[in-house]
Amino acid sequence: MTNIVVVGLGEMGASLAKILTAQSDNYVVGVDMSEQSLRYALENHLVSATNSRLRDVASQADVIILATPVTSIEKSMQQLATMSLKKSVIITDTGSTKRDIMAVAEQVLTPMNMKFIGGHAMAGTHQSGVTFANENLYRHMTYFLVPSSISESSQLQTVLQPLAAKFMTIDVARHDALMATISDVPHIVAFSLMNAATTQLGPSTMFGQYVAGGFKDTTRIAASEPKLWADVLLSNKEAVLASQTQLRKQLDLFAQAIENNDDDALIALISSARESRENL
Amino acid sequence: MTNIVVVGLGEMGASLAKILTAQSDNYVVGVDMSEQSLRYALENHLVSATNSRLRDVASQADVIILATPVTSIEKSMQQLATMSLKKSVIITDTGSTKRDIMAVAEQVLTPMNMKFIGGHAMAGTHQSGVTFANENLYRHMTYFLVPSSISESSQLQTVLQPLAAKFMTIDVARHDALMATISDVPHIVAFSLMNAATTQLGPSTMFGQYVAGGFKDTTRIAASEPKLWADVLLSNKEAVLASQTQLRKQLDLFAQAIENNDDDALIALISSARESRENL
To answer: What family is this protein classified in (chains A, B) (predicted)?
Structure first.
């Protein structure tokens, strides 16, 4: 019997819990601040048991999965470092940026000989909360694993196998640069496009009737959760700023080509973008 | 019997022709440089007749619809100004930017007492060519009409009624500013995101496996046709550059807030974008 503690029953954590609970050799304890979420999780068999306090259940755990926002993950890690846990316990998280989390792990967990492996699945929707638990959320999705200095990821992969995700080990710098470019800056761009449009055209209720599918696609992720994304952007600060500088350079190339009526330069820029997009 | 000449049997023109030909009181003549397109249009009943030269059929026309790329539209207008047309003829176009086209109309058509009404439907897909003629292409779509100094759009609307589009009269400056903000700059952004990603991460075949739906949505329109979009961006130059400056300001607000670790500012920026997107 593997005792698994999942902290945070949002969409990511609740989906993890649901999938792992469905395995007969797992005993999954859900931890959340919301009594309502805990009740929902128990009633819908997303977990085997619930508890509102990590410290009440951590000592029994073989695997602890921290599935809260990044700042709460770091607090939980600091708490765990003060508890007496199983020697073999594996601690992991689901935070979408890894630099700060890995730094905290090396600072507080590694000295206690606690094994930590950072985790980040390229999964999740715009929906949030325990009611969006979905047993297919991770299927065929890339699931990054970021080893710390005393971690070893094959055991964790065995436990997480029922997710049917594509596990991939990656180092922290590469992970965060990748996220900045393929996720964080695209979000900033979508937010900025919406804000620029309302600045120029007034409320979106006024111009919404005119927009075609292109604008809707390009701004779809502008509807993301503000607190969560403020956290993500700040926790990946250096990589985000570096990646945004690269984007600005590309935008400047377009402005320059348009300014100069340079048809050839524009066609070259667009052709390169088109080819990359088609090969994605 | 209304004699309608459609110049340019691409997706937009061929769809228009197909819809209008289906009305028994219309006689639709398709004009295109490609013999193959003309043959296809005739064989598939998209038109009543075809001709490879506008000058052979223009004098009979009650309505002339110029559905070629912007630069060709302008050339056709200059040709029409030298021909003897019906006194009552209405000339319109389907170009996605209107400033240059309206300027040419005032310069060459108005002095000849020829009625011109600019047209632009918020319809069309990434597909191109006569084989994509679609009788539902315009259904429920906004179709902008831009009056020139001697035009009157109710007659044209009567002819175009079978499209089932939502017709909306708009002035040229407002039209082009709107397009810059909701279409042109979003395209530039999508192109730039792709180019910035490949600059930082290498070919998209290398990082494509990691990207989630957000990146795919945001860059979908980066797969657009290079020559066409170079034309669009250059023909709407002033409005595009002005709108891109507004976007850059919004991007800078994000960079600044991240630089300053300003959680509150970030949440405010994202909340405003989210609300606008949800009300779209």
So the answer is: Belongs to the prephenate/arogenate dehydrogenase family.
